[in-house]
Structure prediction request, 340 residues.
Amino acid sequence: MKDQLTTPKSEIILTGDRATGPLHVGHFIGSLKQRVTLQTQHEQTILVADMQGLTDNATNPSKVSSNILNVVADYLAVGIDPKLTTICLQSQLPALAELTMYYSNLVTISRLERNPTVKSEIQSKGFERSIPAGFLTYPISQAADITAFRASLIPVGDDQLPMIEQCNEVARKVNSLAGKEILTECRPLLSHAPRLPSTDGKSKMSKSMGNTINLGASEKEITKAVKSMYTDPNHLRVEDPGNIEGNVVFTYLDAFHPDTQYVEELKQHYQRGGLGDGTTKKVLEECLQETLRPIREKRAMYLADKEQLIEVLRTGSERSREKTAKVLHDVKGVFGLNLF
Ligand code: TRP
Prediction:
């Protein structure tokens, strides 16, 4: 078969994930499904961002190292095909770290402190006055990731929009220093899928809060997660009318159930009264079990052959090394540092 990566495709796409935990249903709905489609239409690279993962886990590095292959297995299990998508490892691309050093001279500390996503992360992680320099500057390293691939389209969640903006600021500064277009500016591609709430309906999904459903969740874990899902707290008796807004079971049904007509009928019945949470949860549970079973099985199969997963990363990283080195060469040239 012809190498599909050599067929011209319309845009260069780069996405990435911090390797700080296995991926969950939120990733699946919000980005993984979209990547499976995009890989057939564009030149797509996915970066396993292990170095960015370290920016807030350097004293507990196994949180990153132990999850790299989990994340790759998650990708393959949902249908991301390494023949169509380049999957590479950030720490294996030295050009990214070098570019970060050069770009650091073009970004002020106060600009970094103004990045709204970084700001809220600093708060939620409790860094206060002891912010790791690597953490504060990760938007610069992300600008290196994006520009090094000459990516034009970045599929991200809305929390990542400030990173895209900062990346383009860097690209414009480099281009203006160079007096020509050395780096490509990019645009975000937001997913149409609304953000999936955590199972408790309150906070962001996080493993430590126990409010996620991982792609590798066992049948029992799925059952337990659905049973504990947040619904309408005022819906006390089956015959009472229930509220579907903020009702996590319905949000998940919208995201996962293939029969939208049926979900619509369930919603109306629930709002009218006469439909119990036990019933809606049963419907959701069956549908989640069906969706996640094949993913869990494939994931386990891939994880049973770690060498193969490493090979996927090695091949993707090797393919990306030359490309990113070329951009580094160009940027060094802008600063007059290409003597030899
Ligand atoms: N910051 C992204 C996240 O937390 C991960 C990431 C790293 C990324 N480098 C990237 C995303 C480049 C898009 C492009 O999920």
